[in-house]
Amino acid sequence: MMDSAVPASPDKSGPAPLRAENAPTSQPSPAYVTTIQAENHQLRAEVEQLRAERARLFERQRRMMELLGTNSAEHLIHDLRNVLNERQLLRTLADME
């Protein structure tokens, strides 16, 4: 017998809809909740560390852009490569004299 509340669709894949008979009836154990809370705390600390690192890297990038006189982060590597090539050229010219 087919449940009339959930229409059958043979062309759609995915998880079965949650029905009342499939719903969990018991509460999670205190140990499980404690484990999840500890994991959540650890993940939040990791997110904060990543945010701080991102801010430091962004500030470093901003300073490099300022030193190279570029307005675009996308051009930063290109401009840095140009500076290094010019430095090498100047060294070569200085060694020739």
Concise description?
With 97 residues, the chain is mainly α. It has 2 helices and no strands.
SSE topology sketch:
Elements: H1 30-68, H2 76-96
Give descriptors for this structure.
97 residues, mainly alpha, rod-shaped
Shape type? rod-shaped
* Structure annotation, total helices: 2
Alpha-beta classification: mainly alpha
**Average predicted local confidence, pLDDT:** 84
Helix content percent band: 55-70%
**Low-pLDDT segments, ≥5 res:** 6-10
Main pleated-sheet profile: none
| Content of β-strand | under 5%
Tally of strands? 0
List the secondary-structure elements in sequence, H or E. HH
Give the N-to-C terminal Cα separation. Answer: 95 Å
What Rg do the Cα atoms give?
30 Å
Structural summary, described in words:
The protein is mostly helical and 97 residues long. The protein has a domain at 30-96. Helices cover 62% and strands 0% of the residues. The protein has helices spanning 30-68, 76-96. α1 packs across α2. The model is unreliable at 6-10 (pLDDT under 50).
